[in-house]
Structures are given as structure tokens and as C-alpha cells.
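User: Can you model how adenosine-5'-triphosphate sits in this protein?
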Amino acid sequence: MFFSRKAEPVTQKVAAILASYFSMDVAETASWCKATSTDGNAEGVHVTLPFCIDSQLPVLSDLVLAKLKADSKHALTESQLSFSTEITSQQTSLPPITNIKNIIAVASGKGGVGKSTTSINLAFALMKEGAKVGILDADIYGPSIPIMLGNTSAHPESEDNKHMQPLMAHGLVANSIGYLVPQDDAAVWRGPMASRALTQLLNETLWPVLDYLIVDMPPGTGDIQLTMAQQVPLTAAVIVTTPQDLALADAQKGISMFEKVDVPVLGLIENMSYYQCRACGTKDYVFSKDGGEALAERHGLPLLGQLPLDIHIREHGDAGTPLLISSPDSPISASYQEAARALSMQLALTLSPREEGNKHIKGNPIGIVGS
Ligand SMILES: Nc1ncnc2c1ncn2[C@@H]1O[C@H](COP(=O)(O)OP(=O)(O)OP(=O)(O)O)[C@@H](O)[C@H]1O
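Assistant: Here's the modeled complex, given as C-alpha cells:
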């Protein structure tokens, strides 16, 4: 291969700065950095990141430029340094679904800990960080995604009576059993019917190209959840828990369930970690303190985020405009984005890329309903 003599050192310099910033080996960050040149002479550096951190790019760019400036031989101007994101499709044991790079299960051992609320806000947070995201409501017995997206009366359209166009709400692509059958019908389904419904939803939806499909799993760790986890080509799972012992014991079962089916757990998200008084700012640890952190530590997993018990999270979820949509610049939205960045990085940096690459990415189908 032919390298420009001038280009190599500056890309290496940028790779070294990135390696130190992300606490990684320079050999890994070097593959992200390419010299940009028009006539064979290096004119700048383009960095392709394998995870989505759009909100941090201005800070990262300033840091790289400042460090390069300190070394005048390698100084770059702002226009000579650019960033983009290319999410890779990671390995799964089951064959992938057309157009979906990574499927992430959001699960909880215990019901009512805020799994669906976390799923939807994480999905929007990943979008805000630059990823293409969809959500699949696998909570067959209690689908809440249509309520949280404010489109309970919507139905996916089908041109051939075999495949569905997913719904689109606030830019997020979605499908749910809640759009297809009345709640009371699904509530009496037995296990095999429920997991068949999930695989149908997954396989018969015309998903556009997605970096991440978030799957809001049904609560619990019983046979139904286990079968679902086995039937879906999950890339990884995230466990949502509240900090009290009861929920943690169930979260532990959730971790074991995914271990049993060889689905890597990316980390934990602790929901309702504390309540902060609006008048005096005091934090009350309503459901105990640091339980998520202790569980994460015990399993050698990262704690991807801690979200407070907050009235706005509930109100906006119930109103069909999740917090990330209604108050995108609030501190709680920033916490969801931090968790989304941690999740994206954890997925890109700890798992292996799919051996067959992106053969299953075929391109966007046309006309998503309700966009
Ligand atoms: N951090 C939070 N602060 C305030 N309310 C919250 C928070 N997280 C979730 N809630 C509320 O708690 C209720 C249960 O949340 P959600 O439906 O997300 O839980 P779940 O774990 O998915 O429940 P299920 O087990 O029934 O599927 C909802 O009313 C939601 O708005």
C-alpha cells in the first residue's frame, strides 16, 4: 500500500490523542483515522468512529486541535479535522435480520421498574447521538410503546398482506403488538403464541437500515422471556433495575438468563435511583442507594446510567412525548444521552464485528407510515 510521507504522522498523532481520550490502545484508534488529501499530499484527517457520540464531537474536535497545536509540526485547522460515525454490525449466534445492524434487548427481572420508559428514552437518546434507531415492543402482554409514542390508534400498513411498514413517531421507527391486536386478545395468549408473535413482528416488518433496534422485553425471567431471548438474534442486552434488594435479586436473574443463552450483557441502568426535591435540591434515596452499582460491580459490568425518580419522566411518557422529545435539553435528557453513549461505546468496543460484515444491509424500503 502507498502512504503519503506527510500524512502518516498526523493521523498517528490524532490516533494517539483519541487513544488517550478513550483509554484505548493506539493500534485500535489508528484504524479510525484516515488522511484526507486531494493531490496525494495530506491535507487533514478524517475520523470514523464506530460508536455514536455526536453531542461530544465539538469538545473532542477542540481537544484534538488544541493538542495538535501544542505540537506545531502537526497543527491542523478546524476544517482539516472531520468526524463521522459508522456503526458496525456485531456478531450474533442467530442469522441477522435484514437491515438491522444490532438488536439490543432492554430487560428487567422485575415488572414496573421503568424498562419501557428507559427503552424509549434510550432509543431517542441514541438517535440524538447520531444513530439510526428503531424500537420493537416485545412486551406482548402489556405493550406500552404505543402510549409512550402517542400513537395508540395507529396501524402498520401492508401492501402485500405479508409485510408491515413500521410506524414512525418523532423520527423513531417502531412496531408493537399494541398496533395490531386489542390488548385483551394478547393478554390471554400462551407462551408459544406470544413468542411466535414476537418473531413475526421482527421478521415481517420492513425495517429501514437501523444501527440499533431496541427491543423492549416483557418483564421477568421465565420461560417466555427465555424463549424470546433465544429466538431473536440479539446482539446484546441491557438490564434495567431499581436500587432496592428485591429488584436487584430479579435483575441478577435477568443477567443469568442472558448468560444462559450466550447474549452478552452490556451493562445495567439504574432507574429511580433518587428523588431530588425541587425546592431545596436534597436527594432522597427512595428505593435505597447504590444497589445498581453494587450489582454491576459484582458481575464486572458497567453501570451505564442512573436516572432519578422524576415526575416529568412519568408525565411525558404517559402523554406520548417522552422526555427526550419534550425536554431535550434538560439535565435528565443529558443523563439518558450519557447512558446512550456508554451503551454505544460498550457495544462497539467489547464485542466482535459480524464475520460476514454488512451483507444483510439491503437499503431503505420506501414509505414509512406516519413519518
Ligand atoms: N424514572 C422515573 N421517574 C418517574 N416515573 C417513572 C420513571 N421510570 C418509570 N416511571 C413510571 O413508572 C411506571 C412504570 O414504568 P414502565 O412502564 O416503563 O415500567 P416497566 O418496567 O416497563 O413496566 P412493565 O413491567 O409493566 O412492563 C410508568 O408510569 C412510568 O411513567
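A couple of observations from the model: The longest strand covers residues 42-49. The CA atoms of residues 167 and 369 lie 5 Å apart.
User: Helpful, thanks.
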